[in-house]
């Protein structure tokens, strides 16, 4: 599979990024209007999965604790809300840990969506839920440094710039809180090919 295309930093910082991203997503109102005009086109819409790591925490996560977000993490969660406010998000998924749910909380309030939580030690359940999404769905998944690369790989995408940990496998670097991976799943999985785009926020 191709690695995700990394967007230039100036593009991510641009005021119109939220709109530009939204227009790529089948859940955006423009895409929904086109589907309404041709109902048979609905079934052909792909599923979009947006993967993020949880935002910065107010304590160590290395000892298995469950800290909330720090001030920086709270601000990042709010930036995520603004980035995706026009993206037509239909589903929100997190792990059972507080930091992932808090990362999605501002977006959940804006979109009036519940956050569905999965045990990070049972990745197959979350993968099955994503694969069961209806055509045109746009799901945002907040995970962890180890679960985001694993989930991306299970969905057919290979992420760059990972840390190879002998115990836990491929991980996002500890300081990497700003990476977003937009995966466009093939309509006829697994025969098709996942398209991946990486952004920073």
Describe this structure in words.
By secondary structure, this protein is an alpha/beta fold. The chain has one domain (5-200): Phosphoglycerate mutase-like (Rossmann fold), CATH 3.40.50.1240. Helices cover 33% and strands 21% of the residues. The protein contains seven helices and nine strands. It has helices spanning 9-13, 17-24, 29-37, 71-84, 98-111, 123-131, 147-154, and strands spanning 5-6, 47-53, 91-95, 115-118, 138-143, 163-165, 169-171, 179-185, 195-200. The strands form two sheets. Strands 1-9-8-2-5-3-4 form a seven-stranded mixed sheet, sandwiched between helices. It has a two-stranded antiparallel sheet with strand order 6-7. A hairpin with a 3-residue loop joins strand 6 and strand 7. Helix 4 packs parallel to helix 5.
Average pLDDT score: 83
Count of distinct strands: 9
Whole-number count of domains: 1
Count of DSSP H/I helices = 7
Structural class: alpha/beta
- The strand order across the widest sheet is 1-9-8-2-5-3-4
**What is the CA–CA distance across the termini?**
24 Å
Summarize the structure.
This protein has 201 residues and is α/β, with parallel strands linked by helices. The chain has helices at 9-13, 17-24, 29-37, 71-84, 98-111, 123-131, 147-154; strands at residues 5-6, 47-53, 91-95, 115-118, 138-143, 163-165, 169-171, 179-185, 195-200. The chain has a single domain (5-200), classed as Phosphoglycerate mutase-like (Rossmann fold, 3-Layer(aba) Sandwich), CATH 3.40.50.
